[in-house]
From TrEMBL:
It is a multi-pass membrane protein. Belongs to the peptidase S54 family. The chain crosses the membrane at residues 6-26, 47-68, 74-96, 103-125, 131-151, 163-181, 187-207. The lineage of its organism: Bacteria, Pseudomonadati, Bacteroidota, Flavobacteriia, Flavobacteriales. InterPro entries: Peptidase_S54_rhomboid_dom, Rhomboid-like_sf, Rhomboid_protease_S54. This is Rhomboid family protein. It comes from Tenacibaculum caenipelagi. Residues 41-183 form the Peptidase S54 rhomboid domain. PANTHER family: PRESENILIN-ASSOCIATED RHOMBOID-LIKE PROTEIN, MITOCHONDRIAL, RHOMBOID PROTEASE.
């Protein structure tokens, strides 16, 4: 495992542990619409290193460990860092856009960044086999990726599981776009997959404002 992945995991653990022990610290750096609109833009970055609990942290760090080494070995450290942080910010920006009228909406977690890394690895190796528990049947990476986009759109509309689906979706889109910029050969190598995901993303941008959140 590369030093940058270890460094990101350590940073997430240390910042999250501080947030677990200090509600003041947690509240100061979490993603919170009213505070961000009031000028505290750093929350769009710092919230990506905070987590709700150890299970939330562990799930994200395990996903970063699994998929991060694929992206890091393919792109190198500098571009891996670019994908990670650009996806984190993309997730926060999309959450801000979707919830801008919900002043008390708040969220934390590295899910936006990790979603970007996951999607980058799927773009590079769409035929990789993934096993999503509790269903012990391997599925191709591109099937997971398309399903992930559709489920996130559904979850954002219906607030499924009290999860920040908008951050997941924004981060995934960030990872998708940056990978295409860094590795344009993906378009010719996996045209159909890239095209399907592009149609879903374009549809989201054109019709995303029609997703009425159920209260």
């Amino acid at each position: 495992m590369s030093q940058i992945i270890i460094g990101l995991i350590v940073a997430n653990v240390l910042v999250s542990a501080k947030g677990f022990s200090s509600s003041l610290f947690f509240d100061r750096y979490k993603f919170q619409i009213q505070r961000i609109l009031g000028g505290e833009k750093e929350r769009m970055l710092t919230s990506g290193f905070l987590h709700v609990d150890w299970l939330h942290l562990g799930f994200n760090m395990y996903a970063l460990y699994l998929f991060g080494k694929v992206v890091d070995s393919s792109f190198g450290t500098i571009n891996f860092v670019l994908i990670y942080f650009a996806s984190l910010i993309a997730g926060s920006m999309y959450s801000l856009y979707q919830h801008k009228r919900e002043l008390y909406y708040s969220a934390v977690g590295a899910s936006g960044a990790v979603s970007g890394v996951i999607f980058s690895s799927i773009m590079l190796y769409p035929s990789m086999e993934l096993i999503m528990l509790p269903i012990p049947i391997p599925i191709p990476g591109y099937v997971f990726g398309i399903g992930y986009l559709l489920y996130s759109i559904y979850g954002m509309k219906n607030q499924v599981g009290n999860i920040g689906h908008s951050a997941h979706l924004g981060g995934a889109i960030g990872g998708y776009l940056i990978t295409l910029v860094l590795r344009p050969s993906v378009i010719t190598n996996h045209t159909i997959m890239v095209g399907i995901m592009a149609l879903i993303i374009l549809g989201l941008f054109f019709f995303g404002d029609k997703l009425k959140l159920n209260k």
